[in-house]
Amino acid sequence: MKDLPVPRQKPKKPFYRDISFQVLAGIVIGVVVGHYWPNIGNASQPLGDAFIRLIQMVVGPVIFCSVVSGIANAGDMKKVGRVAIKALIYFEVVTSIALVIGLVTINVLQPGVGMNIDVNALDKGAASSYITQASHFVSTSTFLLNLIPKTMVSGFANGDILQILFVSVLFGFGLAAAGERAKPMLNVLDSFAQGVYWIIGLAMKISPIAAYGAIAFTVSKFGVGSLVALGKLVGEFYLTCLLFFVLVLWPVCHFSGFSLLRLMRYIRSELLLVLGTSSSESVFPQLLRKLEQLGCEKSVVGLVLPGGYSFNHDGTCLYFAAVAVFLAQATNTALGWEQQLALLLVLLITSKGGAGVAGSAIAVLAATLASTNAIPVSSIALVLGVHRLLSSAFVFVNITGNAVATVVVARWEKALDRDRLQSELAAGYIEPEVAIKSVMARH
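Structure tokens predicted for C4-dicarboxylate transporter DctA (443 residues):
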């Protein structure tokens, strides 16, 4: 009979030193400052932007190192292909379900009905930049061609995750084909990754300040008024996200043998951070390491998580479905079920078109509206005021969905240490330096 794993004892430390508490405190302070002292809140924006840029600076190298190392160390190229196919199947099934949930909920609650917005009276200038940006996502052939960067470093320079992923996969296969001769390069990549993770650790120390700056700016700029004006849409969307957790992610985790709530507790600092910054890139490196610590094989994490950032946009799909139909309702645009199903099919394609482009959700939405030619594209000006409130929610869902996807695919591939997973989830995440000090103290 196999011995059960001994639960780890989480080292006790003052609650105020926990990064999750610090980030939450930063968010609360940001709300207060943004509401009562809007001038200070508006001036705090660079704090959040600086942190996001610092993380964006290292996301490309982290993806490159993790994907290349994962493929090269996997040894079996069939395994790499098998993991990729399983991940893509999972991504497409779950994002399709997300779109359906988004469409059904918005049609049942109908938050836009009765607004009677005159499209000609909208401020088209406010949406013009997004409409212009949308032209980059309309053509499927252009999207596929743009997967290939002009040079090996173009994706890194532009921060394009899909191009970085493309180069990383090819380079990883190249090193795998080289066999033993590739070992020196893999050692260099591992050493380089350690240096990058040191930068990330340094950045995380200022993440509470970043969360404060981002949320203070948001509250000072849009205030409570924006929430009241379009409160029905915001409330409907938050409910839709909750339904997705209950109807999709919870059953997936349950049948895969682990607790969704415990997983969310394990990555709570990352979830709180994306609530403040509305940026999924800001937590990618930390999420990568935590999933490996949970017991997922490095090669699987290195393939599935970057792929999820490009193709598994659960929350964003909820957003696209909800907002597109809301705009039709608000502008009294007739949109039957046949047209909505056609919209769903288009969304499955265009939702991938913005992968790797920071803040592209509205541009991709504009591209979708333009391609269907059913809903006035200029109507997106209606949601600009509450987009930040919506994006915090859908990025939160995206991060949770990608964490779940990585564990599920690892289990599917039999590349998951289940005992370690349960032990880690039961104890909660422990910072590496805290764990080392705890072990040294016991000995």
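Residues 1-7, 354-358, 434-443 have pLDDT under 50 and may be disordered.
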